[in-house]
Request: fold
Amino acid sequence: MPSENATATAPGRVPTRQALLTKRGGWFFGLTGEQIAKLLFQGNAAISIVVLGLITFTIFRDAVTFLPQNQDNLRIYRLAGLEFVDILRGQVTEHSTLSRYLLKIRSDEQQRLSKAGQDFAAVNAQLAGFDALANTFADAALEHETILGEMTDHVSAVKDRYTVASDLMQARQNLLAAAAQDPARAATLQKQAEAYEIEQIDFTAEIAPLVARRPEVQAANQKLELALQQATASIAQLTDANQRLALARFQEHLATYRASIASTEERMLAWDQAKPVGWHESLSAFLFGRRWLTASFWQDWYGVIPLFMGSMIIAVLALSIAIPLGVAAAVYVNQVATSSEQKFIKPTIEFIAAIPSVVLGFFGIAVFGETLRRVSQVEWLSWVPGFPMLERLNATTAACLLALMAIPTIFSLAEDAINNVPRSFKEASLALGATRLQTIIRITIPAALSGIMAAILLGFGRVVGETMVVLLCAGNRIEIPDFSAGLGAIFQPVHTMTGIIAQEMGEVVRNSIHYRALFMVGVVLFLISLLINWLAQKIVRRYRISIG
Amino acid sequence: MNKPATAALIFARPTPAKRAEKGVFWLLRLSTYFVLACAVFIFLDIGIKGGAVVFQTKAPFINVPFLTQSPETLNVVELDGQKVRMGDHAFREFKEKNPEKLAGVAVETYVYSAGGIFPNIVGTVLLVGGSILIALVLGVLSAIYLSEYATDGAFVRFLRLSIVNLAGVPSIVYGLFGFGMFVIALDFGVSLLAGWLTLAFMVLPIIITASEEALKAVPKGYREGSLALGATKLQTILTNVLPYALPGILTSSVLSIARVAGETAPIMFTAAFVVRDELPWQVKNATDFLFQGVMALPYHIYVVASKIPQNEYTRDVQYGTAFVFLFTVAGIAMTSIVLRARLRKKYKW
Reply:
């Protein structure tokens, strides 16, 4: 036995193993081996808390500075007058959209007439009236376009000058900081810093001529109004019913457009360059922004909505495939299958979870996307909305593959839940004369419902958080899907929150606003996963109580 | 002829309810087998097309260069009306020897499509090995604390909560975390070490939960018997709990190896390089070993799947890499499933 106090001074050193296992001790900082072991285990456990803290801290630290940076971004947008020009741009864009709509009606009509056997000249002659209308309409906004072009050049130049000035300012600050660090070269560095000519930009004065053009815009608007009135009056001389419908729709659009001109004018009048940009404006520009536009010459936008929509569309689609299949498989394996089938199916489905997501993504690119497009081109499937598919890689391609990833999760958790339903429930139901199907539908599934719900939620978490499949197969177009296409919207390419991080993180400039924006997206993902976990736990806890 | 009894006749005739039941059961059965068929199709597609790259009909039956060489650019040259494929090295030699043949001949190049994937395999093994080691040490020790020492309190409740929540965090967020924390804040750069830590923290929750479950499954009587005989708590754990929980811990760790090996998102910007000329052990100082980026199979698949066109020249490297990767990961996962099935039979108390 070791002595009471086996310190290093004791002649016979105690073997480590014995020292570790002895009850009495104090051989190391007065601690017994037992206590040390406990501390070791405890310390390790504490590390996982530290890790959680670190994760939260790291991504939040890099994300929160996004807000002031974006605020600054929006402030310049307003100060340099870009916002003012964008108000007018909205109107001009709407005009050209309507103009394109007219051209589309014309080309449809032309096709119809040439199919009916008329030759080119005859068709043109017949459409001459329509062409006159279309041309007057297109020309009506020429004056606006000129003003807009001039304004755009003006504010772009102002913004460029500002960017140059702020870059120089940054360079000067760096030099001065270096000078403070290095006394030997301080004088030269300071001289270099002084040598920079930094332009002070007076935004109010720069933008004044722009604001002064408001009466010009008003005058142009009055002319436009007259032209539009004429256009409205001279519409409607097409014979085909479909075309007349299209024209009627054009007239509706035209009416809203005419109404919007006045409000555009009002907004231009009400625009205030000096209005401060609040931090909540910066936050809502991120949370509710409908544009994710980076490295643009005009203005960068960091709005998460298109990415969020992409993630949600893919997740909902994937779940609508995975839930029926996963739950059906769980019910089948637990309630219907023979035990040999069980032994084979259960590990096999769980085995699917081991397919690495990047391999699934590769399969999607190499085989599945192409197959899906071939199928969509089959003649007798053309009634399906969105068929034939325009793109090989789209939300549906990614969702089908993600469904395969979510199925094992949903299957094994749902199977557990069904397995946990007390046998007496089932036996009581069968004893009352119910068939097996009735028992399953009325007793077993309702009793396991909350467990199944939790399984579905965790499957959802898995789908939303998946990166490689969506990065490879979703098509990566950063736009809100065009829901006017109805259900066909699911065959459009989308981009997702996970995908954008993976795609842009590698190339982004560190600590730039774009970098912070990606961390903000990471924060959104982190919060979503916390919410899902919290909900799943809550549901499971409630379920336990109800079984009693 | 024996007429069946009336009762038998009545019960043999399917009632509408029975018929509906049968139909629904068939529907369930079909859904289940549909899922299996999808998985089998993927395995077959990659297995057949990739197997053709990795295995050969002639001795030594395995495409050795593919497994032992580094990736190269593939040059496709039209010589004498035939398309000839050459790796970059071979192409340069050929160019020096007979430059006249190449005059005016169009050369198509495909990056990464020649040579092999040896550095990727090495990098993956290194990444997985190191991160699993870190994760296992941290995870198992934490699990022992949670299962044997912890008494319910604020600390432990918070610990469990954080573990459950960490398990659900998307892997790309771990990638962001690793990038912000290790690559930038601690200035490791894109390195093996950053990759290890990122991956280790990603699987830590899984290892802790699974190991704790394995420890909890050891009957209380084992501990009580040992303690009653006068053993200390640590002795009890070392001799009477861990040996019985070890198989369970083993399965969980094998499963997490499969998960670590399969993940791409966390290593994309913490550890993986698209191309690196030297192999990981070709470093000047021993410390450089930890701070070097490596090539890895999953990242390589991502690059060759998304950055180069799909055609007959690039197909080999795409399917070959996918084959090696998929069947390695699948093999690991299979081991875990078989192991678990065996251990369940062996340890029943």
